[in-house]
Specification:
By secondary structure, the chain is of the alpha+beta class. It folds into 3 domains: 57 residues, no CATH class; 105 residues, Tetrahydropterin Synthase, Chain A; 76 residues, no CATH class. Helix content is 53%, strand content 24%. It has 9 helices and 8 strands. The protein is rod-shaped. It starts with a helix and ends in an 8-residue tail after the last helix.
Length: 268
């Protein structure tokens, strides 16, 4: 009976000796409270009740989401920013010994760095210069976490939310800017048209035949649609010699209107 109990105890102790670490894991081994090294990947052995495994470090790339809510920019605008951090443990020994909980430490370091960047950046730069801000965040967070054996690979800003009232104001500002540009373009077109008219007037100045041909073209364009009406100032009639032309045009229009009326029965 005693031998059976002793065999069971020995078997239980021996069963605690073999351990297995995955390919991406490193097991931290302590012997009587002192760090002795890392084990893995694969099968390894420890001395039961003498050596312990307080932590197993995952060395794959980890994604951590973090945010800054109602944080004031340099121009005192409250914004909400969501971002994602991509990082990995490059030194498992430092991650186990230099910081109590490296995952929480990385998350808090990312949040404080994001708030610091937002406080030093204006809203316009925050909206337009995302790539530069992401690079700055990656550099700041990596400098803080590198002593813990953690390397930050990249930071991606997912969303930037600003107050609804400010969105409306920015929309109105953009609309006013577009209207201003449209009016500037229209005024430039008017200037070009005036220059073209000035050049045309020089051509017509010593060529009355060309001026009358232009007048005829204007009448044609105005009266080519049936039922059209064209009002011409008397000064234009005298200066362009349009009196006879307008009379002929009126007669032609009247003839077209008469020919368009249906004839009474029996007068076909």
């Amino acid at each position: 009976m005693y031998w059976a109990v002793a065999g069971l105890l020995i078997g239980f102790v021996v069963a605690q000796a073999p351990k297995v670490a995955a390919q991406w894991e490193r097991a931290v081994v302590f012997r009587l409270g002192r760090y002795t090294g890392l084990r893995g990947p694969g099968l390894f052995w420890i001395v039961p009740f003498v050596e312990t495994l307080p932590a197993t470090i995952d060395q794959r790339v980890v994604t951590t989401g973090f945010a800054a809510e109602q944080t004031l920019t340099a121009d005192t605008v409250p914004v909400n920013v969501d971002a994602v951090l991509f990082w990995m443990v490059h030194d498992a020994e430092k991650a186990a010994l230099e910081v109590q909980n490296f995952r929480n430490a990385v998350s808090w370091a990312a949040q404080t760095a994001l708030r610091d960047i937002i406080g030093r950046t204006s809203l316009s730069d925050l909206l337009r210069g995302r790539e530069q801000i992401e690079d700055d965040l990656q550099r700041i967070i990596d400098a803080r976490t590198n002593p813990w054996g953690v390397t930050v690979q990249s930071v991606d800003m997912r969303d930037i939310v600003i107050p609804a009232s400010l969105q409306d104001a920015m929309s109105r500002e953009a609309q006013a800017t577009r209207e201003k540009q449209a009016r500037v373009i229209l005024s430039q077109a008017e200037v070009e048209i005036a220059r073209s008219f000035a050049t045309a007037s020089q051509s017509y100045q010593n060529n009355p035949v060309a001026l009358q041909l232009r007048a005829m073209n204007m009448l044609y364009e105005g009266l080519k649609e049936r039922g059209g009406l064209m009002v011409v100032p008397s000064s234009a009639v005298e200066s362009l010699g349009m009196g006879g032309l307008m009379g002929a045009a009126a007669m032609g229009q009247a003839h077209l209107a008469a020919s368009a009326k249906p004839l009474p029965p029996g007068q076909d």
